[in-house]
Amino acid sequence: MSLETPFTDALGLDVPIVQAPIGSATCPALAAAVADAGALGMLAVTWRDEAATRAVVAETRRRTDGVFGVNVVIDPDAKTVPTETHVEACLDEGVDVFSFSFGDAAPYVDRIHAEGGVVLQSVGSAAAAKRAVDAGVDVVVAQGWEAGGHVQGDVATLPLVPRVVDAVPETPVVAAGGIADGRGIAAALALDADGAWLGTRFLATEEADVHRLYRRRVVEADETETVHSTLFDEGWPDVPHRVLENETVEAWEAAGRPDSDRPGAGEVVAETEDGTPVRRYEDSLAVPGMTGAVEDLPLYAGQSAGGVEDVEPADEVVTTLAAETDEALTNARR
Ligand SMILES: Cc1cc2nc3c(=O)[nH]c(=O)nc-3n(C[C@H](O)[C@H](O)[C@H](O)COP(=O)(O)O)c2cc1C
Question: Which residue's CA is the closest to the ligand 1 atom numbered 3?
Fold first, then answer.
């Protein structure tokens, strides 16, 4: 069965699957493996400076002839590099797929279209989808609140996707949040989405740039073991995010979920490879080379972690997801 959709047609993909931008866990090896397998690979560049952004784009291009894009979080509180700098550097490096989240893509749409690029915008409501399309966005990503990492809204994927599809009937919609396998992708397609955007699933790949303890926690977690809060607010305040339960979360919950005077506030819990201290409530992702109590850091993951059972090469994940989607669609028809 063909898995072709308006989204795969617009981007030149073989399958309607996206390796979601998962912050510093994205890297050329991951995006290129996904792109080689016919899905969309993504590089999250928000926390990379201009030189690092150019370098990861160039290296990904060296590694694959497939389709990949970049994601930029627009919220100025989340970043130090202006969005214009990221956009111009990526255009200069030949990127033609741009995804924006936590802010309005409108100021960048004309510039990217002028270079022949495609613009994706993440939203958490039908109204936000409508605004994005009115601003010229080409593809809408509807992110439900079961998603891992920072979350755009508080509506779950199942009610959100059909509302977004109905709000922007002429625009391809990609479903994000809570999708761990091909049954989830088939469900998204049955909701009239044109693709699926998986973050947590791709954390558990050999290529993802995450600390082995974090990866292990993702694989071991049940769907009941995530928490949605604004707890890890140092670096990016006041934006809800979903993480796995850990000692930091448990101590805060035991203290009655206080807004201030949180247990262990200011304490250094880990160090990066270059010796930079990481404090307990920082928004830092647990990456390879970190030492200390790495499992106390924000272990960003969605409820979909319950359905992630193995660490596999990313290209195999894509192939398996596509086969499972096909099977689930056939089974649904029976
Ligand atoms: C570790 C991690 C980091 C993330 N970083 C970003 C990011 O940099 N930009 C962004 O727009 N979304 C980010 N997200 C959200 C994902 O793009 C995606 O919407 C989410 O993972 C989908 O839900 P799922 O985890 O259930 O698949 C991140 C998610 C995770 C788990």
Answer: 22
